[in-house]
């Protein structure tokens, strides 16, 4: 042992000490890491990099036949190499024990001897390649479809036919689509060689053009699909050498609508037969196709059109037109171009920390629009609370946890194909900084604080974390700064939250440093969430606050909206709607109700559905419908989905064009005019019109003309001279031609006339005067080679230029009506054309006198053109009806009793329709002409009553207007938002606000309700706002239980029977800070009720006060109790002295006669009952009139309920200071509280003293009006007027002066604000009244009194402590005085509150001055009394 120890000693100490040092360092590093919370060097040394993992080759769609072999290619790249597996129809294949299917070394799937029978199809289906790397994750390839051609079967077989030499022949051989590539033809059982003249169409049909004798024989088609070939029946094709009969032009093969994918080829077949041999030409969307100059277009045998390498621009409607010189026929087909899904933006790799939110972005395009699904590590991502599909295609993962790492793939799919793209998610440790990435990979809530932290002190936990606002789906958290950093200006905060019972924690960050509140959105109702807040500074994240447990408000347990509602058109009359189960079903969904409504109508229909899809039939063609779905559970209907709108497919028009008319232009052309069919019968977009015309004598020779859909007239040229032609018009859509109009006829001119100069003078003019009319007849100019468009008749008394009437060129007579009897008229006649008017022909006539009763003998001018005038007037149309079609269209129909029973128009009459609405009243009539017995009036306003009438015109005769018909257009959704939205707080309830608004200016129907949205975040999604419904047409609404001192945003939306209108702009409002109504802030954005009660009915000029303090000097300073006691005692002593002096004075002056008068007046005034004052004691008066004095209230306390207020009188005008606006409202309330009552008493007292001389009022001067709260003249004047009538001696002429003063004072006082004093020339004292002490208790008055409209409601809820004020002014100015009111004693229960609230800003020096003023007043009173 000793030897061993000695042997180890040389190396022992050195190696042992080194080992100990290393061990100590490692333990120390680990302990330090544990203390600091950071990982060891292995964890924090570097950031893991993304691993390339993708497919090199993916499987593609494959067509195979029975018994053959198939390879589905697949190869993936990764380090290390991935493991390849295959799925068929979503299930993994077990290739180990499969004899026919095996995995090749590169990952491809090999299938030998494909099996396929009628009842056993094990190999046909969808295949997907799956690649896995154990340490990374899994990715899946696109899905490939393997199609196995079925057993051959013929849908149609060739049939025997005959064809003339040079013509075209068709031999059909239609097989199932997957076998078309395996079809070939035989002639006389020999393989048929195909060339430019003999073509096999994609359907398998054989087309032979320019047939020769060698083409005759027996034809059959063969299908060879791996098994024994299958032969069709044989059919003989005969070639006819001689022309036995003239065959009509017919289509042997018409084009049919096709759907093709970008890059493919398409063949539109079109083969026609007839003699002469027809030529085939093609048009696309009304434009001729130049096949020869295009590299991608080619004409095949017979005239079929081949389009190679299809692009999106090739989509459209193709017309095949066959023309053989005698006839023209056409057919059309629609080519729809589809595109496989392609990525506009692929998902990007993302680094993240736990608890963060991320978004994988994926933008795709394709036609039809692709659907997107997400796969994580090969498994489908099912949307949940933490995995959400946002913005249709993006995947959002909320509150990341470590297990979320892996590969995510976006798979886009439509009817054409599918594709995939993937990205990797790596979750780093919290102390590892996230490398720079594209900004779209992280959500805005988690992009902060990603820079590496430096060393330094970390902040402590935030303090006082509270939920200041808890709603059903959002919670607002507020907190205070950490104790370690009381200012916290540079701190940012992270709010971590999780649903109770789940492991996922999410984070929401503040938007700027120093902000100490966060609103967490998108929460679930009635759910408990755990919140904690951490502060961060430049060194890193600090301590977490204690967990805060908050439960969101419950919602009614009704289903949410059904997601992914979609509508698909399946035919012109049917639509299929699909949806999914609501995410928040709140119990089992019992059924769904599908609502649908035609756009522009107000009738919504519904149908009960138990599944997730439904097809509605019987809809109108090419009409837009809106659909919505409501889920029902045991509690009732849930939230409706948003409306989804779709238009049904188009069809051929179901009605002919309207209002067709013909205009002969010259000897070889006629212009035809028309209007489109009514919108309800168009059944699609009108793409064109087909005009057919023929000679009236030869009905078989019909010529067609196609014009574009925007054109409503066409000039038909190349006609024969002096020939009658028939015309008819039909409308076209992409689906075909609609019904045509009836034939209309017109005759061309015999010869072309000259219109380069004006017509010559008419050859004769004859007049026949009657009593009130003159019959004018004429013959045309002798030169018949100049065009005459019409005749202009001028007439007037003594001059032919007073009136001018123009008539048609065919007319030869006219009766001038409404003339004066026994008057000399000069008449002139001119022929005119488009160049101008010709030379006039003059004639004069004197109308017969009234006494002339001789018969009117009708005469015939000796000219071949002049018929006998028809004196009978036209009968007006009858049975006028207005049929409402939509919100802007009404159809007017009528009958004409002057037509035969079948009501067919055969002459040149036309109808004039006029219409108007009575809103506004001065609306003018609009008119339109029609040649049929109906007219479509468009461009009307929604929900508006119109009146219609019709008149008929035939030649020179017109009827009177028919009886009127009325129609109100349908309603439409409101097209403007509610206006003038204002928000004010409710007085006494700072947590309650009142929202007011006005109806939308374009309501388009009866408003059935409003929806108020409000939120604390103006940028929140609208579905996160709180909703307050308002039923009916109310224009105000209260919202309660809001959070104090919080800004809210409000929007309003109006609804009528058609749906919801647009939202108003957001209006901001901040709730008050304090609960007490006496300390409610007055700085709200939309105004505040301010102090005291909100005055009812303040008039239209009222403007709520803006921000500012209630006091001109800020917060008033409180007097100590000693100073308050001095004020109370001083005022009390002064009041007693004044009362004693006035009592003595009045006792000396009163006579018994005056007492009787005063008693009489009191009995009259006592008839008024005042609520709350059982003793009916009137408040006293104190009218003071002095030579140079005017008493003004000076109230420096903003408190509306003072115990007592001094009212000093300044000695001169220099002592008077202006009073700020903040006191105006309070003083006005005090003035009005007794005004009506006091004026009565004062008038009676003065009348008693002065007898024959009534008191004259002394006015105040005022500041400019600041508020319109005083716009209540009746409050001031009515009681005074009544009492004066009672108590004044009516023989005194001065009474009129007083009455006129009262009338004028109403206008002046309405604009007054607080009075100010001025020195004026004065008159001797007129009156002085003795006040009496009022009883305690707040006076309340009957609202029926004219003096109380302003305070009738207020007095019921609030005690008004009035302040007596006095008025000293000059005589001769008609303005009302301000009464002096002694304050009434407060009730016991209010005394304590009043003492606490009463504040004053008087200083001791000011009080000394005021006392001096009062002493001066007392001296004046003594002087008055002795006088």
Structure notes:
- It is a single chain.
- This protein is mainly beta.
- The strands form 24 sheets. Strands 12, 15, 16, 19, 20 and 21 form a 6-stranded mixed β-sheet that branches. Strands 23, 26, 27, 30, 31 and 34 form a 6-stranded mixed β-sheet that branches.
- It starts with a helix and ends with a helix.
- Helix content is 12%, strand content 34%.
- It has 13 helices and 89 strands.
Features:
12% helix, six-stranded mixed β-sheet, mainly beta, flat, disordered N terminus, 1427 residues
Proportion of beta-strand residues? 25-35%
How many E strands?
A: 89
Rg, Å, rounded? 50 Å
Low-confidence regions: 1-45, 439-453, 855-871, 1076-1119, 1155-1401
Tally of alpha and pi helices: 13
Give the topology:
Layout: H1 2-8, H2 12-36, H3 41-44, E1 53-57, E2 62-64, E3 70-72, E4 75-78, E5 83-88, E6 91-92, E7 101-103, E8 109-111, E9 125-133, E10 137-148, E11 154-156, E12 161-164, E13 169-171, E14 174-175, E15 183-187, E16 190-191, E17 198-200, E18 206-208, E19 217-223, E20 230-231, E21 235-240, E22 250-253, E23 258-261, E24 266-268, E25 271-273, E26 279-284, E27 287-288, E28 297-299, E29 305-307, E30 316-323, E31 328-345, E32 350-353, E33 358-360, E34 363-367, E35 371-376, E36 379-380, E37 387-390, E38 394-397, E39 406-413, E40 418-428, E41 463-470, E42 475-480, E43 492-499, E44 506-509, E45 517-520, E46 528-537, E47 540-544, E48 548-551, E49 566-571, E50 574-578, E51 591-598, E52 604-609, E53 613-616, E54 624-633, E55 636-637, E56 644-647, E57 658-664, E58 670-675, H4 679-682, E59 688-695, E60 703-708, E61 713-716, E62 724-733, E63 736-740, E64 744-747, E65 762-769, E66 774-781, E67 790-797, E68 803-808, E69 813-816, E70 824-832, E71 841-846, E72 878-884, E73 890-895, E74 910-917, E75 926-930, E76 934-937, ...
Parallel strand pairs: 2-10, 12-21, 23-31, 32-40
Antiparallel strand pairs: 1-4, 3-8, 5-6, 5-9, 7-8, 9-10, 11-14, 13-18, 15-16, 15-19, 17-18, 19-20, 19-21, 22-25, 24-29, 26-27, 26-30, 28-29, 30-31, 31-34, 33-38, 35-36, 35-39, 37-38, 39-40, 41-42, 42-45, 43-44, 43-46, 46-47, 46-48, 49-50, 50-53, 51-52, 51-54, 54-55, 54-56, 57-58, 58-61, 59-60, ...
């Amino acid at each position: 042992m000793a030897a061993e120890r000695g042997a180890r000693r040389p190396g022992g100490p050195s190696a042992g000490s080194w080992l100990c040092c290393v061990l100590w360092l490692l333990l120390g590093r680990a302990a330090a890491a544990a203390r600091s919370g950071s990982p060891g060097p292995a964890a924090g040394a570097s950031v893991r990099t993304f691993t390339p993992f993708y497919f090199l080759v993916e499987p593609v769609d494959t067509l195979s036949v029975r018994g053959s072999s198939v390879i589905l290619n697949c190869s993936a790249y990764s380090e290390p190499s991935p493991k390849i597996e295959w799925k068929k129809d979503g299930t993994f294949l077990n290739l180990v024990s499969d004899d026919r299917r095996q995995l090749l070394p590169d990952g491809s799937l090999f299938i030998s001897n494909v099996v396929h029978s009628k009842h056993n199809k094990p190999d046909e289906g969808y295949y997907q390649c799956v690649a896995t790397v154990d340490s990374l994750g899994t990715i899946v390839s696109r899905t490939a479809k393997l199609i196995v051609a079925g057993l051959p079967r013929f849908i149609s077989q060739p049939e025997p036919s005959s064809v003339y030499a040079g013509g075209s022949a068709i031999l059909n051989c239609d097989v199932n689509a997957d076998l078309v590539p395996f079809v070939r033809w035989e002639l006389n059982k020999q393989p048929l060689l195909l060339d430019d003249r003999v073509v096999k169409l994609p359907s398998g049909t054989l087309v032979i053009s320019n047939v020769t004798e060698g083409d005759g024989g027996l034809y059959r088609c063969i299908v060879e699909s791996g098994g024994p070939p299958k032969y069709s029946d044989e059919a003989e094709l005969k070639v006819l050498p001689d022309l036995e009969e003239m065959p009509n032009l017919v289509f042997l093969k018409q084009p049919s609508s096709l759907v093709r994918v970008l890059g493919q080829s398409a063949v539109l077949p079109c083969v026609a037969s007839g003699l002469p041999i027809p030529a085939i030409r093609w048009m696309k969307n009304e434009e001729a196709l130049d096949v020869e100059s295009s590299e991608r277009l080619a004409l095949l045998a017979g005239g079929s059109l081949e389009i190679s390498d299809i692009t999106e621009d090739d989509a459209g409607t193709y017309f095949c037109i066959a023309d053989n010189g005698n006839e023209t026929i056409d057919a059309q087909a629609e080519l729809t171009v589809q595109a496989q899904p392609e990525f506009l933006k692929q998902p990007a790799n993302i680094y993240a920390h736990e608890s963060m939110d991320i978004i994988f972005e994926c933008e795709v395009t394709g036609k039809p629009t692709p659907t997107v699904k997400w796969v994580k590590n090969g498994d489908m991502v099912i949307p949940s609370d933490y995995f959400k599909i946002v913005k249709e295609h993006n995947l959002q993962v909320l509150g990341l946890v470590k297990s979320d790492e892996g590969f995510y793939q976006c798979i886009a799919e439509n009817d054409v194909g599918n594709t995939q793209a993937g990205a990797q998610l790596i979750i780093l440790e919290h102390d590892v900084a996230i490398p720079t990435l594209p900004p779209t990979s992280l959500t805005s809530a988690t992009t902060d604080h990603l820079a590496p932290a430096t060393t330094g002190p970390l902040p402590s936990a935030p303090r006082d974390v509270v939920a200041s606002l808890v709603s059903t789906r959002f919670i607002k958290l507020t907190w205070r700064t950490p104790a370690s950093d009381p200012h916290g200006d540079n701190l940012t905060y992270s709010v971590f939250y999780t649903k109770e019972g789940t492991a996922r924690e999410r984070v929401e960050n503040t938007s700027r440093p120093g902000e100490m509140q966060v609103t967490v959105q998108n929460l679930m109702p009635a759910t408990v969430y755990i919140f904690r807040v951490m502060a961060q500074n430049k060194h890193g994240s600090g301590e977490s606050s204690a967990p805060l447990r908050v439960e969101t408000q419950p919602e009614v347990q009704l289903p949410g909206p059904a997601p992914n509602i979609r509508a698909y058109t399946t035919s012109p009359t049917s639509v299929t709607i699909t949806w999914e189960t609501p995410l928040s079903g709140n119990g089992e969904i019992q059924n769904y109700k599908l609502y649908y409504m035609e756009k522009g109508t107000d009738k919504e229909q519904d149908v009960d559905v138990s599944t997730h899809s439904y097809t509605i039939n019987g809809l109108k063609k090419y009409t837009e419908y809106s659909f919505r779905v409501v889920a029902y559970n045991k509690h009732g209907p849930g939230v409706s989905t948003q409306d989804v709108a779709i238009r049904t497919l188009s069809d051929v028009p179901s009605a002919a064009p309207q209002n067709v008319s013909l205009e002969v232009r010259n000897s070889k052309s006629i212009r035809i005019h028309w209007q489109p069919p009514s919108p309800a019968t168009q059944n699609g977009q009108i793409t064109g019109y087909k005009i057919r015309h023929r000679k009236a004598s030869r009905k078989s020779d019909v010529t067609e003309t196609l014009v574009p859909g925007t054109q409503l007239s066409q000039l038909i040229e190349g006609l024969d001279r002096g020939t009658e032609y028939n015309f008819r018009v039909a409308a076209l859509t992409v689906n075909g031609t609609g019904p045509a109009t009836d034939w209309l006829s017109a005759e061309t001119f015999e010869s072309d006339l000259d219109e380069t100069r004006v017509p010559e003078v008419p050859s004769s003019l004859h007049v026949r005067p009657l009593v009130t009319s003159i019959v004018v007849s004429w013959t045309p100019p002798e030169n018949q080679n100049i065009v005459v468009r019409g005749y202009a008749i001028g007439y007037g008394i003594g001059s032919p230029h007073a009136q001018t009437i123009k008539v048609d060129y065919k007319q030869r007579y006219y009766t001038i009506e409404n003339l004066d009897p026994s008057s000399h008229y000069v008449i002139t006649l001119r022929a005119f054309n488009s160049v101008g008017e010709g030379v006039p022909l003059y004639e004069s006539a004197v109308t017969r006198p009234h006494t002339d009763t001789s018969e009117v003998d009708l005469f015939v001018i000796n000219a071949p053109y002049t018929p006998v005038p028809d004196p009978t007037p036209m009968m007006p149309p009858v049975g006028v009806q207005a049929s409402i079609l939509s919100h802007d269209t009404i159809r007017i129909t009528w009958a004409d009793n002057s037509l035969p029973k079948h009501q067919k128009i055969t002459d040149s009459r036309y109808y004039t329709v006029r219409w108007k609405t009575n809103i506004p009243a001065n609306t003018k009539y609009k008119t339109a002409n029609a040649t049929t017995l109906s007219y479509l009036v468009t461009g009307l306003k929604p929900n508006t009553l119109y009146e219609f009438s019709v008149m008929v015109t035939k030649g020179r005769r017109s009827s009177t207007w028919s009886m009127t018909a009325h129609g109100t257009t349908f309603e439409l959704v409101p097209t403007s938002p509610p206006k003038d939205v204002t928000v004010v707080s409710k007085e006494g309830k700072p947590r309650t606000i009142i929202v007011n608004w006005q109806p939308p200016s374009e309501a388009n129907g009866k408003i059935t309700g409003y929806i108020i949205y409000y939120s604390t975040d103006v940028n929140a999604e609208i579905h996160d706002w709180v909703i307050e419904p308002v039923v009916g047409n109310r224009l105000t609404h209260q919202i309660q239980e809001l959070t104090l001192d919080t800004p809210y945003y409000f929007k309003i939306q109006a609804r009528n029977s058609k749906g919801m209108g647009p939202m108003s702009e957001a209006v901001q409002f901040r709730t008050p800070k304090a609960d007490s109504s006496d300390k409610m802030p007055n700085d709200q954005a939309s105004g505040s009720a301010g102090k005291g009660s909100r005055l009812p009915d303040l008039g239209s000029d009222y403007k709520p006060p803006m921000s500012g303090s209630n006091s001109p000097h800020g917060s008033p300073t409180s007097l100590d109790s000693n100073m308050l006691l001095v004020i109370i005692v001083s005022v009390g002593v002064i009041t007693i002295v004044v009362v004693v002096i006035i009592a003595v004075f009045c006792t000396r002056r009163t006579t018994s006669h005056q007492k009787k008068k005063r008693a009489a007046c009191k009995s009259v005034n006592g008839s008024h009952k005042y609520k709350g004052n059982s003793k009916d004691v009137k408040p006293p008066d104190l009218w003071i009139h002095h030579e140079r004095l005017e008493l003004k209230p000076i109230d420096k306390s903003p408190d509306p309920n003072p115990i007592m207020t001094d009212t000093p009188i300044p000695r001169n005008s220099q002592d008077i200071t202006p009073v700020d606006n903040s006191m105006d409202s309070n003083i006005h309330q005090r003035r009005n509280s007794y005004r009506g009552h006091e004026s009565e008493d004062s008038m009676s007292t003065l009348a008693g003293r002065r007898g024959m001389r009534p008191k004259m009022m002394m006015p105040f001067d005022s500041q400019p009006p600041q508020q319109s709260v005083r716009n209540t003249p009746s409050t001031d004047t009515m009681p005074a007027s009544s009492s004066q009538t009672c108590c004044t001696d009516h023989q005194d002429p001065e009474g009129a002066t007083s009455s006129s003063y009262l009338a004028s004072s109403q206008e002046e006082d309405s604009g007054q604000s607080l009075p100010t004093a001025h020195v004026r020339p004065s008159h001797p004292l007129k009156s002085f009244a003795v006040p009496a002490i009022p009883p305690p208790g707040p006076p309340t008055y009957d609202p029926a009194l004219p003096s109380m409209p302003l305070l009738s409601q207020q007095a019921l809820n609030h005690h008004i402590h009035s302040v007596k004020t006095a008025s000293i002014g000059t005589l001769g100015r008609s303005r009302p005085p301000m009464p002096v009111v002694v304050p009434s004693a407060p009730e016991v229960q209010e005394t304590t509150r009043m003492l606490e609230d009463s504040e004053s800003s008087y200083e001791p020096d000011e009080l000394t001055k005021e006392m001096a003023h009062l002493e001066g007043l007392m001296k004046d009173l003594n002087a008055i009394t002795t006088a």
